[in-house]
Amino acid sequence: MSFFGLDCRKKKEKEEERHLRANDREFNLTFQYATNAIKTSKYNLFTFLPMNLFEQFQRIANAYFLFLLILQLIPEISSLSWFTTVVPLMLVLTATAAKDAIEDFNRHKSDSQVNNRQVKVLMDGQLKSEKWRNVQVGDIIKLENNQFVTADLLLLSSSEPLSLVYIETAELDGETNLKVKQSLTVSGDMGDDIETLAAFNGEVRCESPNNRLDKFTGTLMFKEQKYSLDNDKILLRGCTLRNTEWCFGLVIFAGPETKLMQNCGKTTFKRTSIDRLMNVLVLWIFGFLALMCIILAIGNGIWEYQKGFYFQVFLPWPESVPNSAFSAFLTFWSYVIILNTVVPISLYVSVEIIRLGNSFYIDWDRKMYYPRSDTPAEARTTTLNEELGQIKYIFSDKTGTLTQNIMTFNMCSINGKSYGEVLDFAGQRMEITERTPKVDFSFNRLADPKFVFHDHSLVEAVKLEILEVHAFFRLLSLCHTVMPEEKEEGELLYQAQSPDEGALVTAARNFGFVFRSRTPESITVVEMGETKTYELLAILDFNNVRKRMSVIVRCPEGKLSLYCKGADTIIYERLHPACKTLKDVTTEHLDEFAGEGLRTLVLAYKDLEEGYFEDWRARHHVASTALEEREEKLDELYEEIEKNLQLLGATAIEDKLQDGVPQTIEQLAKADIKMWVLTGDKQETAVNIGYACNMLREEMNEVFIISANTAEDVREELRNARRKIKPETIEAEPIFEVKQPKNKSAVLPEDTVEGEYGLVINGHSLAYGLEKSMEVEFLRTACMCKTVICCRVTPLQKAQVVQLVKKYKKAITLAIGDGANDVSMIKAAHIGVGISGQEGMQAVLSSDFSFAQFRYLQRLLLVHGRWSYIRMCKFLNYFFYKNFTFTLVHFWYGFFCGFSAQTVYDEWYITLYNLVYTSLPVLGMSLFDQDVSDRWSLEYPKLYQPGQLNMYFNIGSFIKCLLHSIYSSLILFFIPYGAMYDTMRDDGKDLADYQSFALLAQTCLLIAVSIQLGLDTAYWTSVNQLFMWGSLAIYFAITLTMYSNGMYLIFTASFPFIGTARNSLNQPNVWLTILLTTILCVLPVVAYRFSRTELRPTINDKVRYKVSQSKHAPPPQATRTRIRRTSSRRSGYAFSHAQGYGDLITSSRYLRKNMATFSPRSKTNAKQPGTVLKTYRAVKDTVVDKTL
């Protein structure tokens, strides 16, 4: 049961295996499986106040100030009024509670919105509408088109042929292309018969809840038969049903046990490195405070024993103080109260205000606003701003983060001529921009209006009916597995197995060869306005070994042709010797395309003789029905028929990057930020994107590929890579297992490397690399490389890589992604950034910062992050300085007041010092200060490096601040003390009284710290000026008012300093003392900074000098022309293709089948009858993409 939102149930034992029965709630309830309700909120109405206060008082500072408040309520030791502590403490607690309440209220709203969605549940033989929260494991639910998947479901049946469903997984992986799922035949035959579904009592045994999005294992027992279950039969919560009228599913995992919620993980409270350092420093300060109090208490005991005992006539001891030792004990606690300003509570208030202000700057930054989707940048947390200025490692997803998951047909080579470039009148290549004239496809009424091409010569070649050009686009329109849908006349929609294939068919469509429709036996193409139907005789499907695809068709004239496309190395081996010259020219073009980072593909064809094909088909039928070595026999037949091909040309597809990705990565690299890509894509696709993004370059010394399948082989490959990078690192150590260090804070040292290297490792090898015995070996090798790409990785592995770097590297990490498969990585890193695309928002909901485009990351880090870090460091250095100085004057005064715990300042001054007199000026600096403008920050990325090294606020700078404060406090106490000692007014009256000295000391202090603030401020605004001069004016106004006769007469006990201000501040020697004290306080600072700038200038000093000499700001970053280069490296379309779609197209379960049309790879050819099992039905929007 739940009591006040707290789970009071008996803790459930760890689940080893899930066992459930369909339509049997009573049976399933015995296992105490979670319901479908989710809860991300922390509090409710009753638990908020006690839980929030409990959490807040877990902070050392808050507990410390509560303790001080209790001390101040004890009359024997309190020398300050209670309100000096209770007012700021209440302010902090209230502000923090309000912020927490607002955040939790928003979480409640989000939870309620999701939990109250409606879905149809099969109960008591009827479909009833139920809220999501009431759905339970074992329920059968009905989903309809465009509905979100309610829970993790076993697909039972659907409205589509073969019980297929089409789902969009944007919430899971950020990809908007559809994926196909298929139910078991035994459940698919139930269709939408409610009686049959209600009687279904199948039992499922499967894996326990986990976060593996790409894997599921289980079995279904139904009618004494056992059926295997895998991921292709599971619909995950977070997906959306598309282009499927309806489907039924059995709930396997619900609510917090779904894979989506399991990937969200537990929300951890992230703290910055400055926060962690401040906690250490606060403990140091407490020790320093205790030391001062002990010294003063001992002094009090000695003084009372030697002097005070003999002055009891004038200074009688209270009745509660029997001796000097007890007096010293009470004095210790009195000084704890007086000296508590070394850790003022206003510090934490100010820090929260500064972080909130810097978060608003991110939200308001128009240069991080994406107008196409109306998406601004958003700081979803206000506690991590300064950490953005210290990032050393970035871990990025690929699809949807670096790329748009959009493929565009950019260039091609046909019969030795390259198309796609735009040349000027002089024949020079022009850069393609938005203003470049586009090709007019108005001659083709079926053209895709979204398709863009700029080379007009290719359209002219098509119109001139050049045979090779027509054959090139005819091949693209026939050789594929795309499924078309034509909702209205002329409005074609292609759903392709891979985005590359869709781009190629769309290109053929626009150049006059429109793939219109397909049946199991034919393909219909509109060629230059004329409709032609080709008889489809065979599909020789793709697989990872073949790396090519072929179709055999009969044209309307009766000629037999084989059309083939695939990787260049594969196709070249199968060309006719007569193609050598054309092959050499095409290879040059391919080198140019690869140099541009494009994905290349070679096209070839072959005319077949009727008699040879009939013989080949007969032999194929025998091979496809063989019981042994079927695959090998089929491969031999494929090799035989795909020989002596005629080369047509090559295509170049761009895996379209998000705007500005290469430039952003280059800028971040200049800032010494290392970029790691963690992606579920195949190795070839990931490497190609690495080159396109300039993370991998041809100029690199070497790119290491780690792809071994055993632990020892992986270790050897890693060591070989390290041996090539830096041999001495191998020679200097024996070969042994690296044990996990007992010390959690163990740091792996940085290795200096000459040259640039890249590392690519696949998921299998990475699994070994992340083992305890090898993690240090992997990390050390990876950190020597400029770029690391981990491909085929699971969401869990992404998080493990991030945690590994956090564990062994003293560095701040950032993870950026856009899908649910990135959530664990985003939560594991110090900073999580979500890309808010048009679809999936799961990554954004789990992130600390979000925006719409990857290119905004450089502005987030190099501008906002760096400014936030510098501002926070300046604030802390100054705040500790002004409060140490303020407090230490009390310490020195103790030696001159008999250690009596008397305050050196007026009580009102103590109360207002941090709240009024010095709060606004330091906030002004911390909110508006800039060492250089945003343009200069982007112009010189090396300005970012001091933050990575934590140079501006560390233990060293803290000690310097303490020494500076000790010096200043000595000046601020002894100069006024000496100046006031035995001093007379100009009218001969005595000036040397306690109140006059207090006024002089506090005035000197305020002016000195204000001037110090002015020296720290690099960027003056009208607000800074107002805060600075306004605070000084307020001080003198309040002082003159409080020390006036009127206030004394009204509140005699509260304002005893009557007339002190007007009697002291009209004396020239007082102002001379203020001037002398101020100069002595700031003189060492000015001298030190001048000497450092002249003798050992930092990168910041150098850039600021250049800025001061420059008359104009640097121009905005221009989009640079891509340097044209060639490369022998290839990335083929075939690499992103998936095997087996030919089987689906020609499947006889729902398509009319005859011996003239077959899928050569199908293992069921021998078993399928030639009769009609189902009438043909066009498959809508089918996309098979089994890659992650």
TrEMBL record:
The UniProt record lists the keyword Nucleotide-binding: yes
Disordered: region residues: 1107-1129
Every P-type ATPase C-terminal domain range = 844-1098
Entry-linked InterPro entries: ATPase_P-typ_cyto_dom_N, ATPase_P-typ_P_site, ATPase_P-typ_TM_dom_sf, ATPase_P-typ_transduc_dom_A_sf, HAD-like_sf, HAD_sf, P-type_ATPase_IV, P-type_ATPase_N
Q: Which residues form the P-type ATPase N-terminal domain?
A: 21-86
Membrane topology of the entry: Multi-pass membrane protein
Q: Which Gene3D superfamilies match?
A: Calcium-transporting ATPase, cytoplasmic domain N (3.40.1110.10), Calcium-transporting ATPase, cytoplasmic transduction domain A (2.70.150.10), HAD superfamily/HAD-like (3.40.50.1000)
Task: Write out the entry's keywords from A to Z.
Answer: ATP-binding, Magnesium, Membrane, Metal-binding, Nucleotide-binding, Translocase, Transmembrane, Transmembrane helix
Catalyzes what? Answer: ATP + H2O + phospholipidSide 1 = ADP + phosphate + phospholipidSide 2
UniProt keyword annotation of Electron transport present: no
TM ranges are 57-74, 280-303, 323-349, 875-896, 908-928, 949-977, 997-1015, 1027-1050, 1070-1090
For this UniProt entry, what is the primary localization, expressed as one broad class? membrane
Q: Which co-factor is required?
A: Mg(2+)
Enzyme Commission number(s): 7.6.2.1
- Family designation: Belongs to the cation transport ATPase (P-type) (TC 3.A.3) family. Type IV subfamily.
Name this protein carries in UniProt: Phospholipid-transporting ATPase
Protein source organism: Huso huso (Beluga)
